[in-house]
From TrEMBL:
PROSITE patterns associated with the record: HTH_TETR_2
Pfam families on file: TetR_C_35, TetR_N
Segments forming domain HTH tetR-type: 19-79
Keyword Transcription regulation attached: yes
InterPro entries, per database record: AlkX_C, Homeodomain-like_sf, HTH-type_TetR-like_transc_reg, HTH_TetR
Region forming the signal peptide: none
Protein name: TetR family transcriptional regulator
UniProt keyword list: DNA-binding, Transcription, Transcription regulation
Domain of life: Bacteria
DNA-binding region, residue range(s): 42-61
């Protein structure tokens, strides 16, 4: 059988331009949400801020809600990628988990939107139509953590790995909501909890 060669198709100029407009729109939307909440987000202001027409944004996102949903999706994907990179960057499970907790605390400290998505705090002002998105993000973070543990410790069963990752996620979010200790201390506490839980399991 003859092999079929499929050439990679380079993105067109129009595709690149559209991607640039989309990225700039999402960044501007995030700034407006943080500054003025949901009511302060208007497609016209986003369009003016990046130098395009409002119709261009309607063509890309369909509505204000569509723009907000795209922003939530991007923030979620970025956060999960950072979390996974922090876990995979260390060979030792304790250090890996401490790194992921510290990454979470640092990122949430800089990003009010991500804080709202993880904890629900400020969601009313930022995204009242998407307040239910926090649970899926926490669940996704838990699942990424469980997958990491199963790769590093293949002898673990799925239930144990998932429970350890969920405990870590809940402890980390509790600190975000009510910080009692410096981030490095919290990171060490959570990582120690995970390791001890796995040891007992």
């Amino acid at each position: 059988m003859a092999s079929v060669y499929v050439a990679a198709v380079a993105p067109t100029f129009a595709d690149r331009t559209r991607g640039l407009v989309r990225n700039e729109a999402l960044e501007r939307a995030a700034e407006l949400l943080v500054a003025g909440g949901w009511r302060g987000l208007r497609l016209q202001d986003v369009a003016d801020g990046i130098g395009v027409s409002r119709q261009t944004l309607y063509n890309e996102f369909a509505s204000k809600q569509g723009l907000a949903a795209a922003l939530v999706l991007r923030r979620t994907e970025e956060f999960l990628a950072q979390l996974e990179a922090a876990l995979e960057g260390e060979d030792d499970i304790h250090r890996a988990w401490a790194s992921s907790v510290r990454t979470t605390l640092d990122t949430v400290g800089r990003d009010p939107l991500l804080r709202a998505l993880l904890t629900g705090q400020g969601a009313q002002e930022l995204l009242p139509l998407l307040t239910s998105e926090a649970e899926p993000l926490v669940t996704a973070a838990r699942d990424r953590g469980a997958d990491f543990l199963l790769r590093r410790r293949p002898e673990l069963d799925v239930a144990t790995a998932t429970a350890a990752a969920e405990i870590a996620a809940r402890l980390t979010i509790s600190h975000v909501v009510l910080p009692l200790h410096p981030p490095d201390v919290v990171a060490d506490q959570v990582a120690t909890t995970v390791v001890r839980y796995l040891g007992r399991a």
